[in-house]
Write a structure and sequence with these properties.
Length: about 425
């Protein structure tokens, strides 16, 4: 039985199909639980530290440091202290929530837009990096959201804020955004690996990028970057993103010889767990894709084309949106659910949640069916108006049975989508 992540279960699990879909969603969140995946990935046995299949003889190292950034990094820092606490010398973690640690200092920054708080936290990390020597071991906790949270200086803060706001209007995927981010930063695009050189570095990747492009997670601070500043310039010019001071990322291979990156969690893990849980209940399940990035209309067309009575259709990724106006509340998952109401039949139950539990708000996402439409009509709420203003939170807040609250899951692997047809 999955952990009961959903805090407002009685108000949303108001039918058997909804109960089924919500339990399947909880199974997905369970599978990406930061504590569980770290305990599977790291083991300390006397003087041997095992990280995945790689082993480190601690007698060969001086100090062990931990650096972390991103939405899952606070929880990851707490967990890693329980596993290897005695050997940690010091650390710094920057997340959107605080961490309670004995040796790793915790800083809270802002996301999705960077702020000067992020810059101040990065300065503290930079001070620690200056202490790291050649024979030291550095473990980096790299999770989604770190492109904003790891903001190295005020120049990057100003450029990054402008870039994010302008890129949202294009409706393009994160690959282009993070390519430019690499070239306005000293830390991204392998910059952190260069700063830590010649120490030994282990990057633990909590991937929020669909399709296995782990070098894009947090804009690849510990990965060799195959793009150039000219690539970034072409993206900036193609989409009219504004003026930026672009840097070349480190291209010397020596900076990466002692760097190992290991993916400890990705959305495929959650999707396979959802599929297995559904099938254990006797429900057929089909994973449509782990890399969905389509408009809401295209997303629903693809899901409905695969739908069959008695089946649940699963997907991972995120909906493609052009955010061309401000003022609405809620994120992509709630927006996806609003659009789903234009497509689903009385046999269908549709759900979309952000895996970090915070769909640009204090809720994870929403679940909808034709009962939702009935409530909208009863309240005289204009669905089209809320869609146009990207205001899913305000809409579903009024219906009372759609918003899903999990609280922060302290994991982040993009969004999960599910449609069950009874």
């Amino acid at each position: 039985m999955p952990k009961p992540w959903i805090q407002n279960w009685p108000s949303v699990a108001i039918s058997e199909p909804r109960e089924l879909v919500l339990k399947i969603m909880q199974a997905g969140i369970d599978a990406i639980d930061t504590e569980l995946v770290l305990k599977k990935s790291i083991e300390l046995n006397e003087q041997t530290l095992s990280v995945g299949e790689k082993k480190y003889n601690l007698k060969e190292f001086g100090s062990v440091y931990v650096l972390g950034f991103g939405k899952a990094s606070a929880k990851a820092a707490e967990v890693i202290e329980t596993i290897i606490g005695p050997i940690i010398s010091a650390g710094v973690v920057i997340s959107n929530v605080p961490a309670t640690c004995a040796k790793i200092r915790s800083f809270v920054g802002t996301h999705p837009l960077p702020s000067l708080a992020n810059v101040a936290a990065a300065k503290e990390m930079a001070k620690l990096i200056e202490e790291i020597k050649e024979n030291d071991l550095v473990i980096c906790l790299i999770s989604g959201g770190g492109s904003a949270l790891l903001c190295w200086d005020e120049e990057e803060f100003h450029q990054g804020k402008q870039l994010y706001e302008n890129y949202l209007k294009t409706g393009q995927d994160i690959a282009g955004l993070n390519t430019v981010r690499k070239h306005i930063s000293r830390a991204k695009g392998g910059g952190l690996a260069k700063m830590l050189y010649p120490a030994t570095v282990v990057g633990l990747i909590f991937s929020d990028i669909a399709g296995g492009r782990d070098d894009l997670v947090d804009s690849g601070p510990t990965f060799f970057d195959g793009t150039t500043s000219q690539d970034a310039k072409r993206i900036v010019e193609k989409y009219g993103l504004g003026q930026y001071k672009l840097y070349e990322t480190p291209k010397e291979e020596e900076y990466f010889h002692k760097v190992t990156n290991l993916t400890v969690v990705a959305n495929t893990m959650g999707l396979w767990a959802m599929k297995k849980y559904a099938e254990d209940l006797g429900v057929q399940a089909n994973i449509l894709s782990a890399e969905m990035y389509f408009s809401p209309e295209e997303t629903m067309e693809k899901i409905l084309a695969a739908a069959k009575p008695g089946w649940v259709i699963l997907g991972g990724g995120e909906v493609k949106l052009k955010i061309d106006k401000a003022g609405g509340r809620g994120g992509r998952s709630m927006n996806m659910c609003m659009h789903a109401l234009n497509y689903i039949s009385e046999r269908d139950t549709f759900c979309s949640i952000d895996s970090d539990g915070l769909d640009n708000s204090d809720c994870a996402g929403a679940i909808v069916d034709t009962g939702t439409s009935t409530r909208l009509n009863h309240l005289n709420l204009d669905l089209k108006h809320y869609q146009q203003h990207f205001d899913g939170y305000t809409l579903f807040e009024q219906t009372g049975s759609e918003l899903i609250y999990t609280g922060p899951t302290e994991a982040n692997v993009s969004d999960f989508l599910a449609l069950y047809r009874k």
